[in-house]
Description:
- By secondary structure, the chain is α/β, with parallel strands linked by helices.
- It folds into three domains: 2-199, NAD(P)-binding Rossmann-like Domain (Rossmann fold, 3-Layer(aba) Sandwich), CATH 3.40.50; 209-291, N-(1-d-carboxylethyl)-l-norvaline Dehydrogenase, domain 2; 301-433, 3-Layer(aba) Sandwich (Rossmann fold).
- It has 19 helices and 14 strands.
- The protein has helices spanning 10-21, 33-40, 51-61, 70-76, 98-110, 127-138, 159-164, 178-185, 187-190, 201-232, 236-244, 265-278, 287-309, 337-347, 360-366, 376-380, 393-396, 400-403, 421-426, and strands spanning 2-6, 25-29, 64-67, 79-82, 115-119, 145-149, 169-173, 196-199, 318-322, 351-355, 371-372, 385-388, 411-414, 430-433.
- α6 links the parallel β5 (115-119) and β6 (145-149).
- α4 packs across α5 (98-110), α5 runs parallel beside α6 and α10 (201-232) packs across α12 (265-278).
- Bound molecules: uridine-5'-diphosphate-glucuronic acid (UGA).
- Uridine-5'-diphosphate-glucuronic acid binds at residues 122, 152-156, 212, 215, 219, 253-255, 257, 259-262, 264-265, 326-327.
- The site of uridine-5'-diphosphate-glucuronic acid (UGA) has 21 residues, from α10.
Amino acid sequence: MKISVIGTGYLGATHAAGMAELGFDVVGVDVDPTKIERLSRGELPFHEPGLPEIIRKHVDSGRLRFTTDYAEVGAWADVHFVGVGTPQMPGQHAADMKYVDAAVLSLAEHITRDALVVGKSTVPVGTARRLQGLLREKARDGVDISLAWNPEFLREGFAVKDTLEPDRLVFGVNSPDAEPTLRAVYAKILATGTPLIVTDFETAELVKVAANAFLATKISFINAFSEVTEAVGGDIRTLADAIGHDTRIGRRFLNAGIGFGGGCLPKDIRALQARVSELGLDRSMRFLSEVDEINLRRRERAVYLASSMLGGEVADLRICVLGVAFKPESDDVRDSPALDVAARLYEMGAAVNVYDPEANANAARRFPRLNYVGSLTEAAADADLVLLLTEWDEFKALTPEDLAPLVAHRRLIDARNVVDGDRFRDAGWDFAALGQRY
Ligand code: UGA
């Protein structure tokens, strides 16, 4: 079976590499020739542990290649995965479907042999049914194009593992041949006992957004309790551990801090609200606007703590920001709470030094006015305050002894609840953490 993957961004590049790793001949397709050139040399335009190695291995073996040519893959592949982006529309909550629509229309125009198109992008419910109509209408005469929906649940930083060893597979199908084809594509993964859910289009589309909405809600749930423990005392980490022992709740995604960001959770909960609102069901997902608000309030809290620790005025003071990626093991700064907090402190007049092991370059493109430096030592030099905003391992391991010789004043805010606060307090530091009373 020959496979094409349309879109070579985060999702598409990972999926193409995963399909090659499963043994298929794969072509990654993108409209951006620069991306295609780089990928063809085995270079990845973003940071993802383990992925460049797999891409290089299969580019070298000839099993994986990249092209901008739809006509070539339309005549070649049996299965076309669509993994293009669905970003939030500027100034609106709804997802922008122009890339998905363009990809599907290009496929319809160029597919010259019977094929299965498989949607992987995160889309508003109802999209698959609409695209199926589009494919039927636009397919060439005598060519049968079926559609299936197969949402993707990979996390940045764990993309390879999540692709090759997913928690579950979901197939949304609406034609007799789609399920057997998808079973054949994923045969090796299914053979390991991975749960498979075969369902209709709408359920498959909703599974994806429901999962992300649940995860976002879980994070905002613990962060809402942070607001309470900050006011009355108590330890948010212990609270999370204690409720997390209940297997019905579970400890994962109960890490309190500056909240969720990235290219998925924030935009997905907004797009879901926009979609249900179109359906006249605003009330069903209204709680997600609260989830969003709680999340955004965490950034304000971090800024407020920084300013109070510095006596109410940050102007001309030197702040060391550790981490601007939206989470560790990623160079992604899309909707990054950390970058937002750093930028707000800059806007308030602080001199902000930033060090992130991977995300400096992306952050500098988005917000160039911060002082990006190449090491923790440079970032902390003469700092009046250190702000730990993304929990990279190198920051989690920090001790008072590491930082004290560098900084001008011993002040630390742990916005991710990852260092031992007592150790800093005992060493004479002014210490605050999100979720703890200060
Ligand atoms: C998320 C989902 O976890 C994936 O399952 C999904 O496939 C993906 O979106 C997607 O839709 O493509 P990702 O955006 O890579 O994956 O990041 P997460 O690991 O979910 O983290 C999201 C944010 O939540 C990060 O900013 C992280 O710092 C924050 N977070 C996470 C917390 O604040 N607390 C936690 O306990 C966990």
